[in-house]
Structures are given as C-alpha cells and as structure tokens.
C-alpha cells in the first residue's frame, strides 16, 4: 500500500513536469488515454478478458459531451456525470450480452458492438457530422487556455486513477483476478462469474466514457475516429505495451503511444511501423511490457549497489 | 439424519445413460465414499450434485431442501463446498488470497464491504488462518500459489474448500495424480476432517477408501451395485466381480 502511495506521488510530480517538456494539449491527451488504458486493463489484466470494443464507450462519451455543448451549451458539471451514467448503462447492456460467451466469441461480440455504434455515428450525419466529425465543441471560458485545460485534465486523471486503484484493491478487484485465474473455481467458491465479469466491464466502460467526454473538449471536435475500431486496437496496444500485469503499466503505454504518434508522425508518416515492431517485440520477449523493462533495470541496479 | 439425499437421479447424454437411477443418502457427520470402475458414472453423478451438470430426472436434497439444478455458485452459501480432481486454485494470487476468495464468498458482510481494501474486511483473517492451519500451509500464506509444490497445491485446494465453512464437503478423487508421499499427506488430512464435516468422497484408490470410509456405495454402469460398510463391500461378490476382481 505504501508503494502505491509513492507511485501516485511520482505520477503527480510527472504530471506537473509534463507541460514543461510537452505541449499542454499533448500532455492532456496522454493523460486522457492513461485513464482509458488503465480502465481497459481492469478488463484485460485483472479480469483476463480482451475487449476489442473500448472505443464504443470512448466515442459515445465524446459524442455526448460534444452534442451537449454544441446544442445546449451545457455546463461541465452536468456533461461529465451524464457521460458516465450513459456509459454505465451502455456498458451494462453490451457487457451483459458479451459475458454470455467466453474466449474468442466474447472478443468478437465486443468488436461487433463497436462496429455497430461506429456505423450509427458514421451514417447519422445530421447528429454526429459523420465522417467530417462534430466540430464546434467549445471549452467553457475558464478552460480556454491550454495550460488551464491541462491542469483540469491532470486533476481529473489523478482522481480517476485513484478511484480505479481503490476498485482493484477492493473485494471486487480480487474477484476480478480470481475469475481471470480460474472461473470454475471462482464459481465453486460462491461467486457469480458472469456478474463479476460484467462489473469489470461496466467499471471500465464508465471510466472510458468519462475520458471520452473530456477528449471532446481537447481539440474542439469529435472525430468519427474516436469511435472507430482502430481506436479500440490502440487502447489494447497501449495497455499491453505498458504492461498489463501492473496497475500503472498502461499509463506508460499511453505516454509511449501518444508521444510517439504526436512527435514521430510529424516527420515520418509511416510511424505506425514503429508501433508494430515494438508491439511484436513486446509480445515475443517482454510479456510484462515496458514496466518489466523498468523492473529489470531496477533489479540490476539494486544488485550492483548491493555488490558495491 | 441424512444431510444429503439423492432420489432416483438420472443423467442422459444423448442415448447414453451415464447415471441411471441412483438413490442414496449421506448421513450427517459420516464419510460416504462412492467408488466404481472407470466410466461407472461417478463423475457425472458428482457433477449433478455440484450443479455443473443438470440431471435429466430425479432430485438432490440438501438438509431436506431441494437443490436440484442449482448453479455451482449458489452451493457454498447453502453449506456445500468441493475440492477438484485436477487441482483447481488461483495461480497468480497468493496462498492467503486464494483462501480469501472462498471465505469472502460465504461471508455475511460481503455486500456491505464492497469498497474497502480487500485485506481489511473484518472477520475474514481468522477464517483464512484457520483454513490454512487446518491443512498446514500457514507458513506459505504470502507465497504465490503457482510457486507451491504439486502436493501443497492440492492442500491449498482443500483449504479453499474449507474456508467456506461447509457442512458438506465433496471430494472428487482428492489423491488423483499425486505421488505416494503426497497421497499419504492427503489421506491423513481427510482422516483429520472426518467426523467434523460430512464428507462425500469419490475415489478409486481402494486402500484409501477402505481405510477412511464409514459407508461405501459402488457404482457400476450408472447404477448402484451395492452399498454398505467397508467390510461388507470387501466381502461382496458382485463388487469383487465388477471392480475388485479385475485388480486381484
């Protein structure tokens, strides 16, 4: 528990330093995806389920936020809870249907629902702007400045991570892991496996939708990409590359992914190749992700220090 | 008094009758073994009790209550717990956390404590410690379950079952796949549990069954061939022919 406190302290320090070395919007995007990746890891790393449809919740959150601002000029204190509530409901329904199946079928169902919602967003152009995206999502006055917006996002992200940490440390979190390790035994010890999977799915959906709602404010537009299946792939990628065996691992994955896509893409438009190679290397040699690299380096240094 | 009663239980898989009309009752506090050659229907019979398989016909009564077809996750709350033939644990959780999952599954506070830290839920520590003490794994409490030896993992499987504080403990071939010394360890554990729990044991190691059982039912082609004390079963000619005879 103490180590977690240090991790959060380190994260807070990094969040303060980030806008000094990165453009505030990039830093904000990193933190938004850090929420999404950590939420996805509750499903993937803790519960052992691969969802290939997290963009559904990210996109729906973003559209809710965008539409409420564009049409009603709604305040944030109303928008963010609405996005969360809507995604709890949505993830409840989609999750309920998906957890009836396991393995590959579960994955394909999450993917199918993602596609369904993508096509709704794509074809309902009067509502979402379709392919052109939903423009004109104005931040409220006090968040117009990028640094102010970044600060706002950083505070929200830290709160979200703290809440999710609380959840994975609670009985629910342990039951997620029990279901991941051995669903039959979890059932035989009195636990409703489908309910536990569904809970994990809904928790992740809620936080992902929340992050999506904040994302709509970032560039003032909701692109249809926000709900596209490639986005779901990116989310899985961030989680795995950062390290799904560790609560904070996906944060590193989000940093790596967004930083790479925002910097390298400026001078080399084939940059996803780097992602592909890194991903292959991680899957082949580093199942623990970047976190494992850091842990190994720390281990070597500790041994050196002890020896010297 | 009978704690568990099975009435005319049938289970068909297509045209195959795996269990073809079994009636038996397990006395409170006894160790009741169910034996039979491979393919006799023991495992299907067992799975009908645990809810893994829904019987085609017949009833399962626990403490006078009809629990036929209850899903597996409902049984611990009723007081029925089980061990698995192939060791079934949570490999990436610690030994104590493994037992926690079971203790929490039957914990009355469960719903009210949902957002506390899992390790600070009042009343669970004691049950976890007792269960680990019972099987002699306390000193490994903090270790990852995956790191335990094969025999210790089987003991952990028992500890998980015991942490639910069951009234009826169902043991599915608890010594299957174990070395001679580990088998001895498990037999001793079963003997320690005897009398304090009502036990149903599925097994085909005859020496073990003869040594620990109060009562034995012999299954053969989905039916009960004989039932009685270990001495009576040992002397039963039909049983010898069907089962023991092949070994002698």
Q: How do you describe this structure in short?
A:
Chain A has 308 residues and is mostly helical. Chain A has 14 helices and two strands.
Tell me, what is the CATH class of the largest domain in chain B?
Answer: Alpha Beta
Task: Write the element-wise H/E pattern of chain A from the N-terminal end onward.
Answer: HHHHHHEHHHHEHHHH
What is the general shape of chain A? globular
Number of strands of chain A: 2
Write structural notes for this entry:
The complex is a heterodimer of chains A (308) and B (248). With 308 residues, chain A is mainly α. Chain A contains 14 helices and 2 strands; from the N terminus they run H-H-H-H-H-H-E-H-H-H-H-E-H-H-H-H. In chain A, strands 1-2 form a two-stranded antiparallel ribbon. In chain A, helix 3 runs antiparallel to helix 4 and helix 3 crosses helix 10. The longest helix of chain A is centred in the C-terminal third of the chain and has 26 residues. Chain A is globular, with a radius of gyration of 19 Å. Chain B has 2 domains: 133 residues, Rossmann fold; 86 residues, Rossmann fold (3-Layer(aba) Sandwich). Helix content of chain B is 34%, strand content 25%. In chain B, a hairpin with a 2-residue loop joins strand 1 and strand 2. In chain B, the strands form 2 sheets. In chain B, strands 6-7-8-3-9-10 form a 6-stranded mixed beta sheet, sandwiched between helices. A 4-stranded antiparallel beta sheet of chain B has the order 2-1-4-5, covered by helices on one side. The longest helix of chain B is centred in the last third of the chain and has 14 residues. Chain B is an alpha/beta fold. The two termini of chain B are 36 Å apart. Classes of the chains: A mainly alpha (308), B alpha/beta (248). The interface between A and B is medium-sized, with 25 and 34 residues.
